[in-house]
Design a protein that fits this description.
Length: about 170
């Protein structure tokens, strides 16, 4: 007869594992909406920086070349599909994609962002100012959401300097 000392069993029971999985599922579902809001805000921040940087680049190019520089949307006034900075008044976004001559930069489509209130184009003079008597304003908001806390405006004054601020209405 051997005396065997029985070792205690280690591990989880099925009930303990099911309770743990249920708690993880509840916590994940509670955190998902706030994570989606976080992603929407980050997309807006990224888009406003892209747009503001492009406008600053266009202004710098106009001063450097001492000539007009144009910021044109991808088509008609569809800015969320992208834009191009060009030194030719007749150059379009599509022409910049196929033949980069006279094009400073081409921005591809923005991800899940709507831009409203934007002008047909933004034109900088050789002095770095917008053409006489014009200003430009772009309201950015995430697609599928209309929370006013997420709206941002990129406004370009007659002096040509873009400024980012919160918007109360728009998209």
């Amino acid at each position: 007869m051997t005396n065997q000392i029985k070792k205690p069993e280690s591990g989880f029971t099925l009930i303990e594992m099911l309770i743990t999985i249920t708690i993880i599922g509840i916590l994940t579902n509670a955190g998902a909406p706030s994570y989606n809001d976080y992603l929407a805000k980050k997309r807006i921040q990224q888009s406003e920086r892209f747009l503001s940087s492009a406008l600053n680049l266009a202004r710098s190019e106009a001063v450097k070349r001492n000539a007009r520089v144009y910021v044109v949307p991808s088509d008609a006034s569809n800015w969320e599909s992208g834009w191009a900075i060009t030194s030719s008044s007749t150059k379009t976004y599509a022409q910049c994609l196929s033949n980069g001559t006279d094009c400073v930069i081409v921005q591809q489509a923005l991800d899940n962002v709507n831009i409203s209130g934007a002008p047909a184009s933004v034109i900088y003079t050789g002095a770095g100012r917008l053409v006489t008597g014009t200003t430009a304003s772009f309201v950015l908001c995430p697609l599928g959401s209309h929370s006013s806390t997420e709206l941002k405006t990129v406004a370009v004054s007659a002096s040509g300097r873009p400024r980012i601020s919160s918007a109360t209405e728009g998209c």
